[in-house]
Every structure is written in C-alpha cells, then in structure tokens.
Amino acid sequence: MNKLFISLLLLFVGTVSYAQSVDSLLKSANSFIMAGDAENAVSTLKKLEKLSPGDNEVKKLFAFTYYNQRDFASALPYANELATSPSADFQQVQMAGLVYKAIAMYKEAEKMYSKALERFPGNGTLLSEYGELLQLKKEDDKAIVQWEKGIASDPNISSNYYFAARHYSAKGNYAWAVLYGEVFMNLESFSERTNETRTQLIADYGKLLAPSAQKKSSGETFESAFFVTVRHYGNFISTGVNAAALTKVRAYFLKEWNDKYAAQYPFKLFSYLQELTDRELFAAYNNWLFSERQSFVEWGKQNQSAYNELVQLQNSRLFKLPAGQHYPH
C-alpha cells in the first residue's frame, strides 16, 4: 500500500478519534453540570482543557460551573479570557458578564458589553444583560435605553420586557408597565418571574385605571391611544381589581381599539387577544393572566373546556412578536 496513503489514513483516523474524544468529553461535562455534579464536571473539563487548549466553550463551562458553586475567584480567570477573546460568541460573553456582575466588576463588564455589541449589534440577550448592569450601577435612565433597543431589534427576548416593565412601574408609566408585563408573561409563561410579574401587573392596572393616573406622552401616539382608550372603562374596577373586573375592562377596550386604532398601530399582543376572543378563550386567558395558579385551576374546574383548550394552546404554540411593532416613547 502506498506510504503516503497510509500516512494520510493514519492522520484521518487520529483526527476523527481526537474529535470523538473531545465531543464525548463535552457531552459528559454538560451532563455533570446539568446534574449539579461540580466535582466531576471540573475533572472532565480539565481533561478537555488539555486536549483543546484555548477553547472558549471549555472556558465558558468552567466559568459556569464555578459560578454556580459561587466560587467566583475560580471563575474569574475564565471570565477574563472570554471577555478579551475576539472569537467569543455572545453566550460566552454573557457568561463572562454574569461573573463580572456577581463580583461587582462593573467597569470591566461595561467595557466588555460595549465591545461585544459592536460585534453583535442588536443582540437582545446582550442588550438585556447590559441594561441590567447599568441598573446595578444605578443608571436607570441608561438601562432602559438598552432594554428598549433589545425590544426593537430582537423582540422575542423575554428579559428585556421583564426589566422594562419593572422600570416603567417604578417610574409611574403604568401604560408601558402593563403592556410590557403582559408581553413578558406570554413569552415566559411559567417561571418565578411570571408569578412576580402577575402581581405587579394587577397592581399596575389598578394604578393605570385610577382617576389620578397621568398620561406620560403628549400628542397622539400608540401610548396615548392605549392610555385614553383603556381608561374609558375604569369604572369596572370600582369594586376591586381582579380577574373578573379586568376581563370586562379589556373586552370593551379591545373592541374600541379595533374600531379606532388597530389599523394605525398594529400590535401582536392585541391581535392575539382578538384571536382568543374569536376562539371564546378570552375569559380563560384573563383568568390565567390575573389569577394565582390555584385560583386559575379552581376556575378551570368550573370551565373545563375553555381551561383545557387554553392550556393546550399555550403548550403547543409559542407566542412570537414580529419585527417593526416597537413604538417610540
């Protein structure tokens, strides 16, 4: 057999064997991490580090493992390498940012996010993380700019809506607080943040519909149209802000909105509410949105068909927002 052919064959076999070994170790490391077995994860990653020195994914997994153990001193060298690597992907940059924020290395984190966003402009995840960093620095007015950029450029990243809703609630802009809060709950339907946002959403609707609420925008805008229209039905909450009262408010609001503004201001959330109305699931959805889990289950026992259909819809289809429906404010 030709010696050159044998040499090439051996090189190919060695390359395949090496690749399989790295791939197998990566799978093992991820399995240990998912199982919370930090000791075996680190041991496996050390083997990987020898086989594939300089691999950013290995550095990310090291940083993630140590971060979860709150061993930030061990995570930091890997975070530093990821932060300065020109080939790090956005998830690897995100991991470095988590470490920096955990130990209050805000200056380094801000520099890293600024550079990363030059490479990944409009990345909603990085914009969310950058906004959170600015909030930690007590720079709320700068933070909301990043979250709004994320919503405009990458509209299906739930964290931007979560942080923006909290920001607007704290600032007294209850129109955007309830809009972004509800969008968030549809993007991230079953988490601790969902439960937290539900409580905030109910309180913010009460403040939005109170006689003392002030419109934040001037002239006719999407925001002012929403504010004025929904407040036409504030009398329905006179006996309390709850799922039943808010279902009435929102049903009348949706009809008036569709008559006056839907063509001018298309908005996925409102078209979804109309779809739910057409499918006779509007009451079920509002009970899910505004009721604690057990209360919604109890409501479902009395309205089994609608309850089951809504749950099936939520489990089988992702709520997705199209580009181009971000309204300036």
Characterization of this structure:
With 329 residues, the protein is mainly α. It is 74% helix and 0% strand. The chain has 17 helices and no strands. The chain is globular.
Given the structure, what is the number of helices? 17
Radius of gyration in whole Å, from Cα?
Answer: 25 Å
Overall strand count: 0
Low-confidence stretches: 4-20
Strand content: under 5%
Provide the succession of SSEs.
HHHHHHHHHHHHHHHHH
Give the quaternary arrangement of the chains: single chain
Helix content: over 70%
Overall pLDDT: 92
Q: What structural class do you assign from the helix and strand content?
A: mainly alpha
End-to-end distance, in Å?
A: 74 Å
Briefly characterize the structure.
This protein is 74% helix and 0% strand. It is an all-alpha fold.
How are the SSEs placed, and which strands pair?
Elements: H1 3-34, H2 38-51, H3 56-68, H4 72-84, H5 90-102, H6 106-119, H7 124-136, H8 140-153, H9 158-171, H10 174-187, H11 192-208, H12 222-231, H13 243-260, H14 268-278, H15 282-290, H16 293-302, H17 304-316
